[in-house]
Amino acid sequence: MEVISSVLKFIVNNSSRIMEYTGNHLSLVLTVLVFSLILWIWVGLLISKYDRFANSVIGLANILFVIPSISLFGLFVTIPQLGLGRKSAALALIIYAMMPLVRSVYRGVKSVDPWVIDAGKGMGLSPAQILYQIQIPMAWPVVFAGIRVAVVMITGMATVATFIGERNLGRLIHHGITRGSAEMIIAGAVVVSVIALMLDYIMGLLEKKVTSPGLRHRSEDY
Amino acid sequence: MNFELERFLEAMFERSPPFILEHLQLVLIPLGIAVAIAFPVGVLLTRPRFRHYTGRVMSIFNAGQTIPPLAVIAVFFPFLGLGYRPAVIALTIYALLPIARNTLAGLAGVPLEVKDAARGMGMTEWQILSQVELPISLPVVMSGIKTSAVLTAGTAALAALVGGKGMGAVIFAGINFFRMELILAGTIYIGIIAVLLDRLLTYIEGCMAPSYMK
Amino acid sequence: MLEKLIQLHQIKKVFPNTNIPAVDEITFSIEKGNICVFVGPSGCGKTTILRMINRLVEPTSGNIFIDGENVLNVDSDELRRRIGYVIQQIGLLPHRTIEQNVGLVPRLLKWPEAKITQRVVELLEIVGLDPAESAKKYPYQLSGGQMQRVGVARALAADPPIMLMDEPFGAVDPIVRGRLQDEFLRLQQEVKKTICFVTHDINEAIKMGDYIVVMNGGKLVQQGTPMEVLSNPVNHFVKDLIGDDRGVKLLDLTRAESLMTAVTESPAAANDCFCFIDAIQPVKMALEVMMKNDSDMVGIRRGKNVVGTLSWADIKKHIHKISGDQE
Fold first, then answer.
1. Percentage of chain B with pLDDT > 90?
2. What is the pTM of this model?
3. What is the CATH number of the domain that holds A20?
4. pLDDT digits over B78-122, tens only?
5. Under an 8 A CB cutoff, do C108 and A221 touch?
6. What's the structural domain count of chain A?
7. C255-324: which CATH topology?
8. Which of B99, C127, C202, C244 has the fewest CB atoms nearer than 10 Å to its CB?
9. Neighbours of C (≥3 Cβ pairs closer than 8 A)?
């Protein structure tokens, strides 16, 4: 288990650099997450209201999602207004987040039992009240699953942004490859994975907080 | 940088085509191996003997998916060196998870009462698996394979980093030399490969479903 | 003269992309405090009528008046908050507790919290649920019958004068359904709501209805009290719907009050009675009690008051009337 000890040694010896990379990594992920949530949840809600656009928007999200991350980063870099660095990286990641977020919001809202909505209408809830008091809270579990997928994905894909000048954990992997250094690669991979797992865990806790117990236990009932 | 049609056409029809076959290999071989490993494992893990592990294995699989693709690609390189082989191994591992996950989820999602009815009619465990569980879970299993195929097609672009060549070589050349047309050409081919694979798998699913139902 | 609370005037509904009207020029009215049951096969338009009253469906033509006011002139959300709504699927909000579900409309109407809490407790008791035990529960923790009770409590919450009930007891097993029907009739004695009740089950219609509207293919086929419909079906459709056991249905389902001689008509008879049944109990209970007490007359009570009498001769007369044209 020489590898483990040399990886640990590498992490200890380079802790300040790793901290810097981690900081950059997290700030990129969080920036992307904030913009993505604002943008894509809104788009998801819009297409669940205006159903005729749903297929084309989700189709577009799927197509964008298939583009390899390295390509999208690369293409944005060549656009002068974006250039090397954070703007391109963030924009590309926001575009990737579209698929899981828009789709989960749409699915979540659509998965709400139509009879609950009918009962709500029948009791005199306004369309806005139906959205905020019925559709959104009931869609939460599905939406949250999508958010978790997006967070993990953004964290992983952010590593690739190192090729367009982001100084984040991907750089450890990138430089590890060019220098043929196993401990650098493994250290990078481990730290990124740990961050992804931690973010996923935090989101899981958050999910429990915002999801009504009435929905959480529903599946256990059967 | 300016985009010129002539250079784009050159990239599309002269620079990129030699890499198509390589890229296809980088996708199909890992995918094939991944199906061969993950599908039986998924089936095995839903058998009565192992069923109580299903939940735990699922969460391991989910955790596995948090490892970034770049990390998976890079991790094998120090041990196996540069080249095609480490790239294939890395991509195989990357392709495993969605398939195993969906096989597990698909089989676990078969309604208990349906299996019960089959058992009640005197079907053996093997008959239940082949005639009840697999046909019912086929769409879920296939969607796992499709997800894997599309993800692998994209991730294979990173294989060029560890000497695995493929369309990634064109894209990285584009990034290094700031040549948009190369990135675009490489991406278009990867997109075509991904879409065609998805179609092919959908077609195969269509062929399998009715014959299963007979 | 009883007040007509809900009036429908030449109501017609043609759904988009269809030619045949789902409801075809129907005119009738519902008296205050009555249960009016719409009965007919699925697709006959009964649910559509119900949903037009609270404007979940807008009529193609015609007008609906509630208390003399055209519903089209009222804001639809305001209107619905004044009308209780119960459906077969119940539609409890799964992410809210029972307490929150029942308090939904009062909260929409911005009642003070203390009043809502008090009202919820009161309602849960009325529908036969223990508030202490069930208030904090979530819908998934209740049985089907309990959920239906919560559905009724929720509809009653803001004390609306009108209730719309679409197969409200359709999702539970026959034993629970029977119990819920009985309890609901008992409750109705106290709350005296004006109720539109939709069902495909003629037995339920006879049992629950003060007034029955038989529908088929969007058209009104027959309307009248359960007695009128039972004794005088206008055509084969209604005859088939009722079945051959009209006498048994009369005994089994018709409420004693619908056959009784009111105490105002013959006050002397009431004084002779020494055995009594409840007004909402079926006629067969009257027979049962008569046999047990070796009497040929029972008194009909509503609460503590004797409101009428029912004699063996009365019952026989009605059965004869019913089977009269059957031969």
1. 40
2. 0.82
3. 1.10.3720.10
4. 788 888 888 899 899 889 988 998 998 899 888 888 988 988 888
5. no
6. 1
7. CBS domain Like (3.90.1280)
8. C244
9. A
Question: Residue C277 forms beta bridges with which residues?
Answer: C300
Contacts across the A-B interface (CB distance below 8 Å) = 120
Domains recognised in chain B with CATH numbers: 5-213 (1.10.3720.10)
Quick check: B86 and B162 in contact, CB under 8 A? yes
Chain B residues whose C-beta sits inside 8 Å of any chain A C-beta = 1, 63, 65-72, 74-75, 77-79, 150, 153-155, 157-158, 161-162, 168, 171-172, 174-175, 178-180, 183-184, 186-187, 190-191, 194-195
| Chain centroid to CA A194 | 15
Range(s) within chain C of domains with CATH label 3.40.50.300? 4-251
C85, C89, C141: residue with CB nearest A123: C85
| Domain that residue A178 falls in | 2-217
Query: What one-character-per-residue DSSP string does C163-215 give?
Result: EEEESTTTTS-HHHHHHHHHHHHHHHHHH--EEEEEES-HHHHHHH-SEEEEE
Q: Considering only CB atoms, which chain C residues are within 8 Å of A121?
A: 56, 80
Q: DSSP code of C90? A: -
Return residues 151-210 of A near C (CB < 8 Å).
none
**Looking at the DSSP assignment, which residues form a beta bridge with residue C83?**
C162
The tens digit of pLDDT for each residue in C129-177 reads 999 999 999 999 999 999 999 999 999 999 999 999 999 998 889 999 9
Query: Using alpha carbons only, what angle is made at residue B94 by residues B88 and B100, rounded to the nearest 5 degrees?
Result: 120
> Best interface-test mutation with C: which of A109, A116, A121, A123 has the largest number of C CBs within 10 A?
A123
**CA of B146, closest CA in chain A: separation in Å?**
12
Assess if residue A222 is contained within a domain: no
What CATH class has C4-251? Answer: alpha beta
Residue type for C50, please? Answer: L
Neighbours, chain B (3 or more CB pairs < 8 A): A
For chain B, give the secondary structure using H, E and C.
CCCCHHHHHHHHHHHCHHHHHHHHHHHHHHHHHHHHHHHHHHHHHCCCCCHHHHHHHHHHHHHHCCCCHHHHHHHCHHHHCCCHHHHHHHHHHHHHHHHHHHHHHHHHCCCHHHHHHHHHCCCCHHHHHHHHHHHHHHHHHHHHHHHHHHHHHHHHHHHHHHCCCCHHHHHHHHHHCCCHHHHHHHHHHHHHHHHHHHHHHHHHHHHHHHHHHC
Q: Residue C94's closest CA among B214, A219, B160, B136?
A: A219
Of C5, C55, C59, nearest in space to C28 by CA: C5
Task: For residue A131, give how far its alpha carbon lies from the nearest alpha carbon of chain B (Å).
Answer: 30
Which of C97, C104, C138 is closest, CB to CB, to A123?
C104
pLDDT, tens digit, 9 for 90 and up, residues B12-25: 888 888 999 999 99
- Letter string b/e over residues C251-264, b meaning 16 or more CB atoms within 10 A of that residue's CB: bebbbbbbbbbebe
What is the ipTM score, two decimals? 0.83
Q: Which of C58, C76, C92, C95 to substitute to test the interface with A, most A CBs within 10 Å?
A: C95
State both tokens at C7: 């009036």
Q: Find all residues with CB under 8 Å of A100, minimum gap 6, and list them.
A: A146, A147, A149, A150, A153
What is the spatial distance between Cα C218 and Cα C11, in angstroms, rounded to a whole number? 10
State the average pLDDT over residues B49-60.
Answer: 80
Q: Which residue among B153, B171, B178 sits closest to A70, beta carbon to beta carbon?
A: B171
